[in-house]
Every structure is written in C-alpha cells, then in structure tokens.
From TrEMBL:
This is Biotin synthase. Its cofactor is [2Fe-2S] cluster; [4Fe-4S] cluster. SUPFAM superfamilies: Radical SAM enzymes (SSF102114). InterPro entries: Aldolase_TIM, BATS_dom, Biotin_synth/BioAB, Biotin_synthase, Elp3/MiaA/NifB-like_rSAM, rSAM, rSAM_sf. Pathway: Cofactor biosynthesis; biotin biosynthesis; biotin from 7,8-diaminononanoate: step 2/2. Binds 1 [2Fe-2S] cluster. The cluster is coordinated with 3 cysteines and 1 arginine. It comes from the Bacteria. Residues 44-273 form the Radical SAM core domain. [2Fe-2S] cluster binds at residues 105, 136, 196, 268. One of its GO terms (biological process) is biotin biosynthetic process. It comes from Blautia luti. Homodimer.
C-alpha cells in the first residue's frame, strides 16, 4: 500500500458495495449507524460544528437549477437583491463570533461575476477577517484571477456542490454541466482553498446516482460534504416533487454512506434536517458532525438556541473555532 493510500484511510468500498449500503434493510440500520459512527468518533470526536448562512446576493440567477428558488425558472416569491445590507452581513458575522460558531457561510446567487463585483466581495471579506472569522463563500464559477482575489482577501473555503451524479445532472440543470463544476473545484483546490462540496437528495435520482455522486466526492476529498434533503419549493420545477422516498431511514443510510466513503470530511446534514430527522438528533449526530443553525438560503431553519440545546441534550459539544 502506498503512502497516499495510507493517509486516505478511506474504506475502499466498491460501487456495488456502496449501492448495497443504500439497500440496507431497515432492521439492519442500527448496525450500519454503528459502523459509520465509529468513523465519526475516530475523526471528529463528539464535537458538532455549527454554521449560519447569510444570503449576500439573492435571486435573479441566470441558471436554471430545478430545485432552486433563485433560478431563472423559479416563480417563487423570494427577496431579490444584489448585495445584502452590509450592516446585516457584519451583524451575522458578529453573531458567529459571539456564539463561537465554527464558520460564517456566505451565499451568493449567480454563476458569473465581474472583477468589480469580486473586488466588492473581497472588501467585505477583508472586513470580516479582521474579526478572525473562518469564512466560506457559496459562489458560482470564478475565473482563476477572481479566485486569487478572494484568496488574497483571506477567504478560507468555497462551497461548490456537485448536487447529483454526472449522468443525472442534465435533469436538474441545462445552463451548465457537472464537469464544469468538477473543473471549478479542482481549480480552487489548486489555489489552496478548502472545499465544501456535496449534493441534494430527493430530486428523482436513483440510488446509483447518489452513489456515483459520492464516489466523485471521494475523489475530490472535500473538507466538508453537505447533504441536503430536498424541501420542494413552490414555484420551482421540483415544487411538486415526490419525496416519499425520503424516509428518515433512507436519509440516514445516505449520510452513513457519505461517512463511510469520505470519513475525514465534515459530513453535514444541511437542508431538510428539521423535517426528515425530527426528534432523531442523537442518532443523526452520531453520524454527522456538522449542521446549519439557521436558514438555508431562502428556507427558514431551526433557531440557534434550539439547535444548541438539541446538541447538548444528545450528549455532544459544539465546536469552538472562530473565537
Ligand atoms: S443553485 Fe445557484 S446557480 Fe443554480 S439557480 Fe440557484 S443560485 Fe443559480
């Protein structure tokens, strides 16, 4: 075995073995959770990292992602603005630091930006980095020059999700490709950014698609791997999606598989946590080590105090990173 393989220490699950994990009978789920949980404790202890997200730019996106309220296909009634009020952005940043949360995530709708817009974002990043906050931007495709501008401003991490498998991708988006996303991530990794990349479950994809997406993420080895469970939004093409497949058991199997395939990543249960894991916090946190405390782009989330209580009640501590 070579050194790189040793360092990776990922169980070398084959594609068929990964599919079999999603097919685990519900009566064998506890054993699967135990298997995933041992990796969670090995690499993450009993800490839970918490994030909040500020929507710095909302709506009017040129892209047509079928799940997204901000897309050009969406008629969902959402706030639309080019820049969130700066006071709100900095107040959210203070909130992250006051509560000693792990990271401040900043979402921007859109796929392409001008250099002038990136410089405006860089200015805001420099200001927040004065507080020492660990910052992540969820942002579309950057040119290498733009990515370097953000790196120089102090941005730590970039979120760029794969969302689904390569072969399913055309069903959810026609304005850019899966491979453009993969190339963008590799460019960002080459510049030294930490990467947050994951997907959305429940858009009509097969179990094979879920596995293929996670295998691609195993290649990428992101620092964080967020899994979103679809919350259909009225006015989007997936507004009436059939989500009957998203039982708590199935969602748990997906998260277990993510932990088994990319064990060292922060495995995050992002959108859908309050719906699909209601009253299952303890079990959930034995597999994932990362959650959002409030707000998933335009969807409301559980409040911070409730979230902290759910974590401590379940016997975990929350991570203090950004103080
Ligand atoms: S997910 Fe991002 S790129 Fe796709 S429509 Fe929404 S804001 Fe635009």
């Amino acid at each position: 075995m070579n050194t790189a393989a040793c360092e990776k220490e990922a169980p070398s699950l084959s594609r068929d073995e990964a599919i079999a994990i999603l097919d685990t009978p519900d009566e064998e789920l506890e054993a699967l959770i135990d298997r995933a949980s041992s990796l969670r404790y090995k690499y993450k202890g009993n800490r839970v990292s918490i994030h909040i997200l500020t929507n710095a730019r909302s709506g009017n996106c040129s892209q047509d992602c079928a799940y997204c309220a901000q897309s050009c296909r969406s008629t969902a009634d959402i706030d639309k603005y080019k820049w969130v009020d700066e006071d709100k952005l900095y107040q959210d940043n203070d909130f992250v630091n006051d509560y000693h949360l792990s990271r401040h995530c900043i979402g921007l709708s859109g796929m392409k930006f001008t250099d002038k817009e990136i410089e405006e974002l860089a200015r805001r990043i420099r200001k927040m980095k004065e507080q020492g906050t660990h910052l992540c931007c969820s942002i579309g495709f950057l040119t290498e020059h733009q990515a370097k501008m953000l790196k120089e401003a102090g941005l730590d991490r970039i979120n760029h999700n794969l969302n689904s498998s390569r072969s399913f991708y055309h069903n959810i988006c026609s304005t850019h490709t899966f491979d453009q996303r993969v190339r963008n991530i590799h460019m960002l990794q080459g510049l030294g950014f930490e990467i947050c990349s994951g997907g959305i479950i429940g858009m009509g994809e097969s179990k094979e698609d879920v596995v293929d997406m996670l295998l691609e993420l195993r290649e990428i080895q992101p620092e964080a791997l967020p899994i979103n469970f679809l919350l259909p939004i009225k006015g989007t093409p997936l507004g009436n999606a059939d989500i009957s497949q998203l039982t708590t058991e199935y969602c748990m199997k997906v998260l277990c598989l993510a932990r088994l395939l990319v064990p060292k990543a922060d495995i995050r249960c992002a959108a859908g946590r309050e719906v699909y894991f209601k009253d299952e916090e303890k079990k959930l946190l034995s597999v994932v080590d990362s959650i959002f405390a409030s707000g998933y782009l335009t969807e409301g989330g559980q409040g911070i105090e409730d979230t902290l209580k759910a974590i401590t009640d379940a016997g975990f501590t929350y991570e203090i990173e950004s103080a």
